[in-house]
């Protein structure tokens, strides 16, 4: 055939969500606002400002964060996700939602299993992990009818976990990779628990000056005082129980399933195939394919 | 009979608007009688207008969660003390704690004021939870997804995929577990082998799910998914960042109680910041969604029952926050005064329960073929 | 309507050329049947029509394709959605929403149709495909045939000019397949849509196909009879016609009967000597009064069955009649609520499930085989050498998920056979297999039987049964309704008769090979 023929060359498609500098800008801004929305009870005393309206603050942020989450999602998905990444996101969100026990969506972060989120972030890159954090929590809330003011906070925290997992150093592999992911799993389990507690701590335990309980948030009290109170609150309510349970299940799942599941996920990226009858006889070309171990998002660029 | 009153599902936004109204009303009071009344209204409305869908059954779960919150809140007050008042109900033996545990007391005297403070606070949060539960069981989540702004088109599609993938996952899991039983003869005895068994189930299920998702992606592509160009990127970015920035500043000023210029009693700077932030956000979504051309099949139209339902929620908020007297809305704990309901509060409760009769009943269950 | 000019395709992930220099044209309103041996690139060709290949799969395509006069090189599959409707093999995997109505509306929602227009078209499509009574049903609760009809409806709703069907019935039982193909033929007549279909039950389609596209080393298109005469894969009746030099080549049973009228009369006068089934061996498995009861359903209602060594038994019946439940109950891994299953002294039973991939979880075939050796306590390499005997061309380093359905089946079968079972139960092994894979399966079954094993396979494939089995058990509603030698059961039934048996009726000749043997 002559080279003058129309020539269509499409590289093997990969699963991943590209993060441009615009998206990064929005991610950074929303992360700052998210941390502020979670950490204001401790932040204000630290900069020497006495918070006002403490009773209203949780409601203010409960109203504000949905808008911010929506803006971030709109920015990350802008320009359209390809159908392949979208379908994989949907299926993995469903798996994540199924892994969360039915009661988990009820209140702030009682229980969730992060292992697939971390592995997907690792396999498909930070953009995918970030988005999967949002969609997993949202899917779980929709499926268990658990939509509420806690949802944007959960979504944001889970998205941070997915993003971090995607940003871990690429070169690490083998046992070191697994160890790194397990460490990440344990850290995220406790951090997620503490952050979700921090969100609803002033909500459930705001003491009126006259009648403050000893675990309550005291607006205007020094940061050390409130930190102690929060420390005890979170230790007593969740760190000892739920969070440790979550850290254990996550790390156990990572140790046992980490490598095989990572292999399965990485296979889904970089294979161009429709479900056709004669796809199979393409044989073993996938072994050692260039996309097997590299960052799919980079590979696409 | 009016066409809009025929049996049909109500627009999900109407239910959410109503429930948020009730939740806001509940959040601005600690009067236990009013809170109990709001819980009652939410229960009446949810019970009379929820359909026979799976999400409708979640309501009981929320009621249990509400009970749990009240018990937890009161229990904390009894266990860890605090809010001590003059009226001591009973004295529990206090547990000595090391001195570095600052400010924490275990057990000790339990005062009426402490218990009441816990009860009032807990009841308030419980009411909010029940209102949200009502919205969750009343509003159709699929229609909610379809009504999302166009900029969230991808998110909505991901959710649709997730919701329909879940039952397939269940089937796939059952099949693999059954197939695994064929290897039972050489069953694993050591713990290591048992862990291995988890892998032999998870890996095929996940591979199957991912393979299906690729087939699904092909099918979506073929059927026209994502036939939209990308819109004004730079403008979206500026608007989005502007919204987040403005709202952050506003929230900080609000919480820090920063001084403001008041004009006719309205704090100008605060209002301007909030309005500009929200405006930027809405505009960003508009711009991002402009490129998406997509329509909805059999949309639920917004008719007068929807408007009335939202108005009921708004009326309740208005009556509780603006009309009723603060001493009634926040009954005193110390010294203790019996809570009471006044005219405006009774009206608010009446408004809260009205949607149970104002709205059309949910669609009749179809006869199974 | 569809014009290919020198189209050559190579996937991004491998160097092999999947389609070489395809040049052809399909006129408007025609139904074109695509045939070709395994791996010839049928699916690749169909995918090219709406640019799924290579836009979605990745790869390199040269040459040009014109659909409805428009060059599609620069278009995405989604931009062709209103021109080309594409339906794949497994309808369930392609469903985006979860109820019938929403699925029919999905394409139109994506393309931005108005609400009123959408409503009208959904109602029309519901009637067109005869699925109006299913409108509110959840897609997962439908039967396979209904699901495939919904899938066809969901692409027809936007009235594409071309409908591409890639083996739409390969996952269905014969009755459901009939339902779908009848619908397709009606659409061609009523709507005048151009249809391109790849279908392994060719005999059901060739009647109303206007042309046949043969994909192989070269791609050629032409009138049905002409192309089929030269095709390496063809339905039994056509095969017989070609071998006996009938002219014109018969495409239907009626035409073939006319051509064979003389032969049939001769056989009526003096029945031909037909091979009798070999005597059975010793009983290796005796089941009595087997009952399997699920909460909503009685799946197996008291079945007696004796399997003998060296015997190949087919278990037939419509979907949901209890075939699968019976196999699992016989093996012992499944549920059994009553009756007894007694293997002869020390007889081992193996079962290959319907989706063999469920048992594969390692990264290479070699690893799977090694794991099989380890669990069965065999010398390393036993399973792999067994697999090599079953399918000599298999690559041990390949990933199990990359194999064809037939090869996956072979891997699981090899792992099972390594345990040297006396009874092998196969649950619908022919699902998703094409002609050549079925031929391989038939040889494997014959080899197993020759080793003295007893084989019981659940299947819908009458032609394979006629070729490979010596006994047939037919189930309905959990009970055995007939049980006897293959020839008696198949030839005596209207629904289960092979094509050749329909032709020679009342003389019970089952296969082309038999016909040629006794006619000589």
TrEMBL record, chain A:
One Pfam family matching this protein: ECF_trnsprt
Keywords: Membrane, Transmembrane, Transmembrane helix
Composition bias, Polar residues: 291-301
Molecular functions per Gene Ontology: transmembrane transporter activity
Coiled coil: none
Top-level division of the source organism's lineage: Bacteria
Positions of region (Disordered): 275-301
Protein name in UniProt: ECF transporter S component
Gene3D superfamilies tied to this protein: 1.10.1760.20
Transmembrane segments: 24-47, 59-77, 97-120, 151-168, 180-201
Entry-linked InterPro entries: ECF_substrate-spec_UCP037395 (IPR017196), ECF_trnsprt_substrate-spec (IPR024529)
Taxonomy of the source species: Bacteria, Bacillati, Actinomycetota, Actinomycetes, Propionibacteriales
TrEMBL record, chain B:
Keyword Membrane (UniProt): yes
Keyword vocabulary terms for this entry: Membrane, Transmembrane, Transmembrane helix
GO cellular component: plasma membrane
Membrane topology category: Multi-pass membrane protein
InterPro entries: ABC/ECF_trnsptr_transmembrane (IPR003339)
Keyword Transmembrane: yes
Main location: membrane
Cellular localization per UniProt: Membrane
One Pfam entry name: CbiQ
Descriptive protein name: Uncharacterized protein
Organism per entry: Tessaracoccus lapidicaptus
From TrEMBL, chain C:
Classification via Pfam families: ABC_tran
Keywords: ATP-binding, Nucleotide-binding, Transport
Record CDD domains: ABC_cobalt_CbiO_domain1 (cd03225)
Cellular component GO terms held in the UniProt record: ATP-binding cassette (ABC) transporter complex
Record flagged with keyword Repeat: no
One MF annotation (Gene Ontology) recorded for this entry: ATPase-coupled transmembrane transporter activity
Sequence similarity: Belongs to the ABC transporter superfamily.
Name under which the protein is recorded: Cobalt ABC transporter ATP-binding protein
